[in-house]
Amino acid sequence: MAFTGPITYSPEDVTLACGGFLLSGFADGTFVKVEPEDDRFKKLVGADGEVTRTKSANRSGSIAITLLQTSNSNAVLSNLARIDDLTGYGSFDVLCKDNLGNVAFAATGWIRKVPGPEYGKEQSNREWTIDCSYLDITYVAQIL
After folding, report:
1. Burial class (CB in 10 A: 0-12, 13-18, 19+), 91
2. Phi and psi angles of residue 66, each rounded to the nearest 5 degrees, phi first
3. Is pTM beyond 0.85 here?
4. Residue stretches of the chain with pLDDT short of 50
5. 3-state secondary structure of 70
6. Which CATH fold would you assign to the domain 11-138?
7. Among 64, 65, 67, 75, which residue's Cα sits nearest to residue 27?
8. pLDDT the model gives residue 36
9. Dihedrals φ, ψ of 114, to 5°?
10. In whole angstroms, what is the distance from residue 104 CA to residue 97 CA?
C-alpha cells in the first residue's frame, strides 16, 4: 500500500461568489453552511413493516453566510437585496467551493432577509441567508 499523505483543507481557500462578487471578511468558526431543504428520499413504514421510499423532487436549499460586521461583503449582499426589493429581479447565481474540489452551486439565489445591525463592546457578526431554487452539491473524492 502506497503512502498518500494527509489531505489538507484550508478555510483560506474557500471561495464564495454571489452574482459574480467574491465575498470575503468571514467570521471565525463556521462561516458558510449549505443546507438542502428536504431529504432526498422519505421513508414510510407500513403496519406490517413493509418499507416504501419516495424520492423528493425538491432540490431547493439555503446557504447561510456569517460575515464580520466590518466586512465589505455586507454592502454587496445588502445591494443585491435592495435591487431585488426595488425591481423584483435581484436573483443571482451562487458558487461555493473549497480547495478539495467540493462545490455547491445555485443558478438562482436571493437574499431571504437583511440581518439587523447589532452593536456592542466588541465587533459582532452578520448572518445572511440565501435561498436557492435548485441547489446542486457535489463532493469530490480525493484520490492521490
Report:
1. buried
2. -110, 115
3. yes
4. none
5. coil
6. Elongation Factor Tu (Ef-tu); domain 3 (2.40.30)
7. 67
8. 95
9. -80, 125
10. 6
Q: Which residues pair with 13 in a beta bridge?
A: none
Q: Are 104 and 14 in contact (CB under 8 A)?
A: no
Res 6: pLDDT: 80
d(CA 108, CA 93): 5
pLDDT at 143: 56
Give dist(CA 18, CA 95) in Å, integer.
Answer: 7
Spatial distance between the Cα atoms of 41 and 56, rounded to a whole number of angstroms: 6
Dist CA 100 CA 7 (whole Å): 8
Q: For residue 10, give the C-alpha cell.
A: 484550508
SS3 44: strand
Distance CA(65)–CA(130), nearest Å, equals 8
The 8-class DSSP code of residue 114 comes to P
The count of C-alpha atoms lying within 13 angstroms of the C-alpha of 90, restricted to the half-sphere facing its C-beta, is 19
Q: Phi and psi at residue 81, in whole multiples of 5°?
A: -65, -40
pLDDT per residue over 122-141, tens digit each?
999 999 999 999 999 999 86
25 and 73 Cβ atoms separated by less than 8 Å: yes
